[in-house]
Amino acid sequence: MNRILSLLGTFVVLLSVLHVAVAHNVRLGAAGRECFYEDLRQSDQMTVTYQVSDQEGQGSSGNLGIDFWVNDPRNAVLKAEKDVSHGEFTFTAQLSGRYIYCFSNEASGFVSREVGFNVHGVVYIDASETEADPLEKEIKSLSTIIDQVKDELQYLLLRERMHRNTAESTNSRVKWWSLFQLGVVAGTGIFQVYYLKRFFEVKSVV
């Protein structure tokens, strides 16, 4: 009986707070923009984390900065960042309504970007009839830590892919440059042999 009551108590605690986490990847074309929205109620908490990589595999050869901003239901700007390659923004909704967050590559007219981003938050459900429980605090804390670890792992995976693209791009350029140098050296050697042969050639006039 005590076990059943304990399970019911845990179920009520889980209903009192709902953690939401969503991961996305979006491609921003040259001079492109993508916007997303979340419908929040007052006191809901939302966090957006993002990391930028290039689509062409050029890595650090170009600037990976994009613009990022968040608007509230009244279209007021809560956060605006320019020319950033990664970031995190957490806020608590002061108004109920639709919150819009955008990623913009409009400053770049030639290079595409890929943005990996996570959206997670805490959606509070009416549970005024329930009493505060230490187990609830522990569950909230554990859920927050899990979200942070997940975000960090996804960030590291994206960084690893970006660095791998940079290394592959660098190796490719070194390979083609070495082949070009080899071709120039071989062509120069052939020309020199041909020229010296013509220079020392004895001509007889009849």
TrEMBL record:
GO terms for cellular component: COPII-coated ER to Golgi transport vesicle; endoplasmic reticulum; membrane. Keywords: Membrane, Signal, Transmembrane, Transmembrane helix. The chain crosses the membrane at residues 176-196. Coiled coil: none annotated. GO terms for biological process: endoplasmic reticulum to Golgi vesicle-mediated transport; protein retention in ER lumen; vesicle organization. InterPro entries: Emp24-like, GOLD_dom, GOLD_dom_sf. The keyword Ribonucleoprotein does not apply. Residues 1-23 form the signal peptide. It is a single-pass membrane protein; Single-pass type I membrane protein. PROSITE patterns: GOLD (PS50866). Belongs to the EMP24/GP25L family. This is GOLD domain-containing protein. It comes from Lipomyces starkeyi NRRL Y-11557.
